[in-house]
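Researcher: Hi, I'm a grad student and pretty new to this. My advisor asked me to get structures for two proteins we've been looking at. I'm not sure of the right format, so I'll just paste the first sequence and hope you can take it from there.
Model: That works fine. Here's the first sequence with its structure tokens right after it:
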Amino acid sequence: MSVNTASPPGTTVAVPPTGDLPERGRRRRKRRWAAWLFLLPWLVGLFGITLGPMIASLYLSFTDYNLLGRLSFVGFDNYVRMFTDDPRFLSACLVTLKYVLVSVPLQLTFALALATLLNRGLRGLAFYRSVYYLPSLLGSSVAIALLWRQIFGGSGLVNTALGALGMTDLPNWIATPEWALGTLIVLNVWTFGSPMIIFLAGLRQVPQELYDAASVDGANAWGRFRRITMPMLTPVIFFNLVLQMINAFQAFTQSYIISGGSGGPVDSTLFYTLYLYQKAFTDFDMGYASAMAWFLLVVIGLFTGAAFFTSRYWVHYDGE
């Protein structure tokens, strides 16, 4: 150990032996390589599974590519054709927009109502919470979509129950254009478990003192819910809204199974993702399907951005 004589009078600075510096550098480089080694699986997934295919898809959206060897650059022709020469594209956009705007608010309303009920301290809360969460795990599965097709079929459970009540001339719900999309909306509302659990966690964070003070001031149950619960839950509502909205825009399995992959009847259940699938893997028009995928990404980004922009007017955080 040596002493740095250039230091101010009365102070000594310990200087490590010069032989320790290269050893420290080697140890630091080893730690750096170990960090990159642990990051390697994530980097492979990012560039090989996510970022790489996205860049390839963006390029293909400007081409005429059919998976069979034809590949030619066409510029913005795919995007122009979507809006000027493809009525089914516009129909798929309209069906998906209806599905999102109706099913998501209904799902969140139902989830919040049930979470409020469960928050009253019911006996066996863990059991009810698990049972109500189960549909969220199964709602987008093939098995549940097949079951839904049987329930709303011409001789399904719904018509059997309504027939027992004396109703006649009941439709085949999934084969009637006026009702087919409604059955898919009901299926999405039925998968309320995930937002319900999040709402329940948010309700547990509302201070009981606020309710006690409101009761002393004479507020009834509805007043406490409107003046305390809802403002305190707005961050949770916002989170659930964005999450469920993005999921609804990407809905695919329900429409594919219930309509047999056609989007029928009369394109009444032709979700955007189902039409994209048809163009890609039925018509082998990969360039057009890639353009549709990027348009969907832009639409989801715009709706999400609008949600974040408007949140400043109705979402209240602690301390505000």
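Researcher: Oh nice, that was easy. Here's the second one.
Model: And its structure:
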Amino acid sequence: MNVPTLHQQLRQQFRSRLTDPTRGLLHVLGAYDAWSARLMEWAGFEAIYMSGFCVAASACAVPDLGLVTMSEMAQHADAMCSAVRVPVIADADNGYGGVNNVRRCVQHYERAGVAALQLEDQVSPKRCGHFPGKEVISRQEMVAKIKAARDARCDEQLVILARTDANAVEGIEYTLERGWAYFEAGADALLIEAPRSLLELEKISHVFSGKIPLVFNMVESGLLPQLSAQQLEEYGFRLVLYSTKVLLAVTTYMCNMLTQLAKQPTTTLPVLPFEEFLTLIRLQDYRDMDV
């Protein structure tokens, strides 16, 4: 009898959590590296989201315009999955090319250990879902990508999260048709990016609630006002991603701290005690294993 690996167990755990209607909304923060993922796990979050926006900014200091390669993203996914023992949802952008690129992307991400993979329908180069000027591929091409992603995974528990950015390009009615096509193609969850009104949320809920797990991307300064957890649950959402919240918070603190230090380098600032940092980074675990 084969014993499931940790990554297989985490995929099963995440799929069960996502599809169980008796459990509440799952709140997941966007991580920008393995360390931020570790701290999210320490704080008690059930899962972690590897945000492409955050990785592009933190690793390369570039905007989310498709500038980070698949191999770079897969390396970050591997580092995050190695750092934590909770499910990791990984942003895979548009699969980094055509159908064959999607297959290779899924294989690399699965080997890295992710529990779910988010695949979107933007053209290359893609851009952040809340940036203007987006373009989308045809519905048929995205359906082919979803089918390719399903075929490429070795573990059927790996969740394929289909995301559509068509709302800003084609309007909500065509976007709903795309979402339904992605559902029929075998997507395990659906994210309709950047809804622009509560009426659009109602339409999304009416078509998909109870049929496929719905995911909401909560972006600071996005196109839709901030919604409460209760509101999102009432619309039928199962998972909410706070993709940029931590990166923006960390950046705010660093800018303030660095400004103070630049003016007066000897300024004493509140920081985590060094011994507590060593505990979080699990130094003793490595000492215990050292021969």
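Researcher: Is there anything I should tell my advisor about the second?
Model: You could mention this: The chain has one domain: 6-243.
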